[in-house]
From TrEMBL:
High-level lineage: Eukaryota, Fungi, Dikarya, Basidiomycota, Agaricomycotina
Functional summary from the UniProt entry: Has a dual role in the assembly of mitochondrial ATPase.
Keywords: Hydrolase, Membrane, Metal-binding, Metalloprotease, Mitochondrion, Mitochondrion inner membrane, Protease
Subcellular location: Mitochondrion inner membrane
Family: Belongs to the peptidase M76 family.
GO biological process: mitochondrial protein processing; mitochondrial proton-transporting ATP synthase complex assembly
InterPro entries: Peptidase_M76_ATP23 (IPR019165)
Domain of life per record: Eukaryota
Source organism of the structure: Hydnum rufescens UP504
Main location class: mitochondrion
Catalytic activity, EC: 3.4.24.-
GO molecular function, one term: metal ion binding
Record GO cellular component, one term: mitochondrial inner membrane
Record's bilayer topology term: Peripheral membrane protein
The protein's name in its UniProt record: Mitochondrial inner membrane protease ATP23
Length: 230
């Protein structure tokens, strides 16, 4: 009589296959090799989310520290407050941008943007934050028309001049530029022109240069609310 039944090794074989498949998936998740296109897409999305979250947490930590401890940031927030606009963590936001910028200012929202993916150090963030707070100060005190390139140029001149954006070490280490004769003013003019050129109302680099030239004399010497260049 024939005897039928299961192969005693089949359970072990099935268990080994499951274990191997689990190992394969784990190895693929770590190395990215052997993933299906859909699995690779999910893996990349998860990595991007982790990077963005880490950048955001670092940005928030530095922002909060600067609001508490930075003399320049505290000075600016106090003087903006005297103009009737309160500045705190609610209107200084961390968001991803791109590698071409580190911050921004929205007149309509009265909000400062810190680009969470744009900072090399807390000091870099401090200079950027002071720069954008100068725009907010100008907005509150001088009623800037942000559609007028000369008004924009004046605020950009002041921000580049007063924020630390044109300190020689930042120029050298971040931009590879080393100047001697009138280094600071050359940098301020260049940085202001670059910023004005990015304005939606600016049609060309020549328009940006013209606006900076027209605003230069009346704005380069205006250090308010500082007594001198920061």
């Amino acid at each position: 009589m024939a005897i039928t039944g299961s192969d005693p090794s089949s359970g072990s074989s099935s268990k080994d296959e499951r274990a191997f498949d689990q190992w394969r998936r784990t190895a693929a998740a770590i190395t990215g090799l052997g993933l299906t296109p859909e699995e690779a897409k999910i893996r990349q999305q998860n990595r991007n989310e982790k990077i963005l979250n880490a950048q955001r947490q670092q940005c928030l930590l530095w922002r909060n520290d600067l609001l508490r401890q930075s003399p320049a940031v505290t000075f600016m927030t106090q003087h903006i407050g005297q103009q009737g606009i309160s500045v705190d963590a609610s209107n200084i936001v961390c968001r991803p941008c791109n590698k071409e910028r580190s911050g921004g200012f929205s007149p309509g929202l009265q909000e400062v943007l810190l680009c969470q993916d744009g900072f090399h150090s807390k000091k870099h963030m401090e200079d950027t934050l002071v720069h954008e707070l100068i725009h907010l100060y100008d907005h509150a005190k001088f009623k800037v028309d942000w559609n007028d390139l000369r008004h924009v140029a004046c605020s950009e001149i002041r921000a580049a001049n007063l924020s630390g954006d044109c300190k020689w070490d930042r120029e050298l280490m971040r931009r590879g530029i080393l100047g001697f004769t009138k280094h600071h003013q050359v940098c301020v003019r260049r940085r202001a022109t670059l910023s004005v050129a990015q304005h939606p109302a600016c049609k060309s680099e020549e328009d940006a240069k013209r606006a900076v030239n027209e605003a230069w004399e009346s704005c380069i010497g205006d250090t308010r609310p500082f007594d001198e260049i920061y």
